[in-house]
Amino acid sequence: MVGLAAIAPHDAAGGFEISHLLVAREARRRGLAGRLLAAAEASAPAARRFVLWCDTRADAAQRFFEKHSFLRDGPIRVDAGQTLAFGYAKPCAGIAVADLDAAAAASADRRLGDLLSATAAEDEAVPLASPTEVRRYWRGVSAEVAGGQRVLIAGWVDGVLAGAVQLDINTPPYQDHRAEVQHLLVLPAYRAGGLAEALMQAVEAVARRHGRRLLTLNAIAGGPAEALVRGLGWSEGGRIPGFSVTKRGVPCDALFFWKEV
Ligand SMILES: CC(C)(COP(=O)(O)OP(=O)(O)OC[C@H]1O[C@@H](n2cnc3c(N)ncnc32)[C@H](O)[C@@H]1OP(=O)(O)O)[C@@H](O)C(=O)NCCC(=O)NCCS
Q1: What is the distance in A from the centroid of ligand 1 to the CA of 157?
Q2: Ligand 1 proximity of 131 Cβ (cutoff 6 Å)
C-alpha cells in the first residue's frame, strides 16, 4: 500500500471533510492522489461540499488541491504542535457559484489559468497567452479583488471549477450606481449545461449587494454570449464595427448591452 485518503461527515449542511491524503514518495506524480481523492469524493454521494485542511508549508499538496478545484476558505487554523493549516473547500452537488474573497481568488489562479487556456484554445475571440502571462493576468484579478475594485465569481459543476465571471466595480466617483460585467468563461466541455446562466444570475445578485443598479457588458456579435444575454433580458445599446480582433487578426463587431438590476 502506497497511499490513502479518509473522508467523514463534517457538518449538518452536507459538508464532508477529506483528510489524511498521503502518497508514499516513490509513488508520487503518477496520478495516485488524484484517484484517491476521486474515490473519497465518490464514496460520499450525499455530500454538498467538501472541506479539508492543508499545512501552510505543504506547497505540493496546496497545488494538488487547487488543481482539483478546491479554493482557500476561512481563516488559518492552528493545529497540534503549533503547525498552521489553510482551510480549503469546494461545492460538489450540481451547479454552484460563489463570489471569491481575496484568499480564495489568489488560490484559484492555476485552475482559472487552465480554464482560460482551454477556452482560448477553442474560441477564436479569446486571445492565446503563455502560461506566465495567464498567471500574471489572474494575479492581477485577485489583486483587484483584494483592493475592492473587482468581484470574481467562480462556478463549479459537480465539484469541477468550470467557469468564472467578473464584475468591474472600479467606477469613477459619483458613478457607483453602475458596473461592468466582464470575462464570462465556461470550459468548453461544460457548456450548454446552465453554468453560464448561473454565473450571470450570480453577478446580478452581487451587483445589487454592492448597490450597483445598472450593468453593462459587451459581447462579440453573433457569438454565444449574445444569445445568452438576450435570453436573460439584457437590452442592446448599440454595435461598434471592428471593436474586437480575433487571434487571427480578423476584426469583429461588438454589441453593447445594458440591464437594470
Ligand atoms: C500531495 C500528495 C498527496 C500528491 O500526491 P501525488 O500522487 O503525487 O499527486 P498526483 O500525481 O495525483 O497529482 C499531481 C498534481 O499534484 C500537484 N503536485 C504534486 N506534487 C507536486 C510538487 N512536488 N510540486 C508542485 N505540484 C505538485 C500538481 O498539481 C500535480 O499536477 P501536475 O502534475 O499536472 O502539475 C503527495 O505529494 C503527498 O503525499 N504529500 C505529503 C502529504 C500531504 O501533504 N498530504 C496532504 C494532506 S494536507
Answers
A1: 23
A2: no
List, in order, residues 6 or more apart from 203 with CB less than 8 Å away.
Answer: 151, 153, 165, 167, 181, 215
255 CB under 6 A from ligand 1? no
Residues 37-78: pLDDT tens digits?
999 999 999 999 999 999 999 999 999 999 999 999 999 999
179 within some domain:
no
Cα(64) to centroid(ligand 1), Å: 5
How many domains does one find in the chain?
1
Distances (CA, A) of 210 to 157, 167, 261: 26, 10, 11
Kindly report the CATH number assigned to the domain that includes residue 88: 3.40.630.30
Nearest protein Cα to ligand 1, atom 24: 60
C-beta 33 within 6 A of ligand 1: yes
Three cell numbers written together for 4: 490513502
- Residues 222-241, mean pLDDT to the nearest whole number: 95
Range of the domain at 42: 1-93
